[in-house]
């Protein structure tokens, strides 16, 4: 049996996505640990304190050695994560040893030493490392089908915000993101299997001294979109810092700086709008989140207005 996980912290994160279903989800944890400890021969389970809303437990497997047991929030992204990891089959991505989609649970390779890229203190060095990773990643060509693309994601949240009403100020930025996406797609037309959330927490230092990618969302689009979340995750910061990071990355991955800014804006508008789809404990907390969303969108939009 695993050590007792931090119920309060886990509940606060999960509630944003599951609302009233949160306690029911958490009530299953001990039973699932017991079930899969027996099924997959796992020992030494320990709850891992992370910022992800999914529940992670370090463990040992008699078959695979050091592992991570991941209990996912139910949703379509569980299947796309599994499919994405399997498609890359260890080429830059973490290995998936086993899974059970009926319980939304995965058994993954544990990356050692596992330091997040945030441990690299110099942001210019982080930019260099990210660019080298993108340059060497074997992007897999993938037809549209079992995965979404960024347009599908944006249209989905656009419909949601339109239906709840009173979101015209937010929708302005989302409409601009859709416009810029259409512009980019005239030039960047590849259909590749992308991570969709490749930021500093999802890049773990491995024993070879390079970085292994974890937690993909799974999205099919052009690789122009793959650096956006990494840059946005550096916020809050100065405009100068982002400009310096883009200037370092653009020549390595051979993408114009202006186009990197566009992809960054698209990702920011999408991610911010997704935030407003979460469960809020009060109207006041919703309005606070909305103000933060507008501020973040304005900040990144200024990179577009300069050109």
Shape: globular
Strand content: 5-15%
What is the N-to-C order of secondary-structure elements (H for helix, E for strand)? Answer: HHHEEEHEEHHHEEEEHHHH
Integer-rounded radius of gyration: 20 Å
How can the largest sheet be summarized? 5 strands, antiparallel
Helix content: 40-55%
Give the low-confidence spans.
none
Give the helix/strand layout.
Elements: H1 7-18, H2 22-26, H3 29-39, E1 42-47, E2 55-61, E3 65-71, H4 76-88, E4 96-100, E5 105-109, H5 123-136, H6 150-164, H7 168-187, E6 192-194, E7 203-205, E8 211-213, E9 219-221, H8 228-232, H9 239-253, H10 257-275, H11 283-305
Antiparallel strand pairs: 1-2, 2-3, 3-5, 4-5, 6-9, 7-8
Key attributes of the depicted protein:
alpha+beta, Phosphorylase Kinase, domain 1, five-stranded antiparallel sheet, two-stranded antiparallel sheet, 11 helices, 9 strands
Task: Give a verbal description of the structure.
The chain has 307 residues and is α+β, with helices and mostly antiparallel strands. It folds into two domains: 7-109, Phosphorylase Kinase, domain 1 (2-Layer Sandwich), CATH 3.30.200.20; 117-305, Alpha-Beta Complex (Aminoglycoside 3'-phosphotransferase, Chain: A, domain 2). Helices cover 50% and strands 14% of the residues. It contains eleven helices and nine strands. It has helices spanning 7-18, 22-26, 29-39, 76-88, 123-136, 150-164, 168-187, 228-232, 239-253, 257-275, 283-305; strands at 42-47, 55-61, 65-71, 96-100, 105-109, 192-194, 203-205, 211-213, 219-221. The strands form three sheets. It has a five-stranded antiparallel sheet, sandwiched between helices. A hairpin with a 3-residue loop joins strand 2 (55-61) and strand 3 (65-71). Helix 6 (150-164) runs antiparallel to helix 7, helix 6 (150-164) crosses helix 10 and helix 10 packs antiparallel against helix 11. The longest helix has 23 residues, at 283-305. The chain is globular and about 60 Å long. It starts with 6 loop residues before the first helix and ends with a helix. The model has no long low-confidence stretch (mean pLDDT 95).
């Amino acid at each position: 049996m695993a050590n007792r996980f931090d119920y309060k912290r886990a509940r606060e994160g999960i509630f944003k996505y599951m609302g009233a279903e949160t306690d029911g989800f958490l009530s299953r944890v001990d039973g699932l640990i017991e079930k899969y400890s027996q099924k997959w021969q796992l020992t030494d389970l320990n709850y891992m304190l992370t910022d992800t809303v999914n529940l992670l437990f370090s463990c040992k497997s008699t078959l695979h050695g050091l592992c991570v047991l991941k209990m996912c929030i139910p949703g379509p992204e569980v299947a796309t994560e599994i499919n994405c990891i399997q498609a890359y089959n260890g080429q830059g991505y973490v290995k998936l040893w086993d899974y059970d989609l009926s319980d939304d649970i995965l058994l993954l390779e544990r990356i050692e030493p596992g330091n997040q890229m945030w441990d690299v203190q110099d942001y210019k060095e982080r930019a260099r490392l990210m660019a080298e990773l993108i340059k060497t990643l074997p992007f897999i060509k993938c037809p549209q089908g079992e995965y979404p693309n960024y347009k599908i994601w944006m249209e989905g949240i656009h419909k949601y915000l339109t239906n709840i009403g009173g979101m015209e100020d937010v929708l302005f930025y989302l409409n601009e993101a859709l416009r810029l996406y259409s512009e980019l797609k005239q030039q960047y037309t590849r259909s590749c299997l992308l991570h969709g959330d490749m930021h500093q927490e999802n890049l773990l230092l491995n024993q070879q001294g390079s970085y292994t990618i974890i937690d993909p969302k799974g999205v099919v689009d052009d690789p122009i979109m793959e650096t956006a979340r990494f840059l946005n995750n550096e916020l809050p910061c100065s405009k100068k810092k982002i400009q310096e990071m883009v200037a370092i990355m653009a020549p390595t991955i051979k993408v114009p700086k202006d186009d990197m800014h566009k992809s960054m804006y698209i990702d920011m508008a999408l991610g911010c709008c997704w935030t407003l789809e979460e469960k809020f404990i009060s109207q006041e907390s919703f309005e606070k989140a909305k103000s933060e969303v507008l501020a973040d969108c304005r900040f990144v939009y200024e990179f577009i207005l300069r050109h």
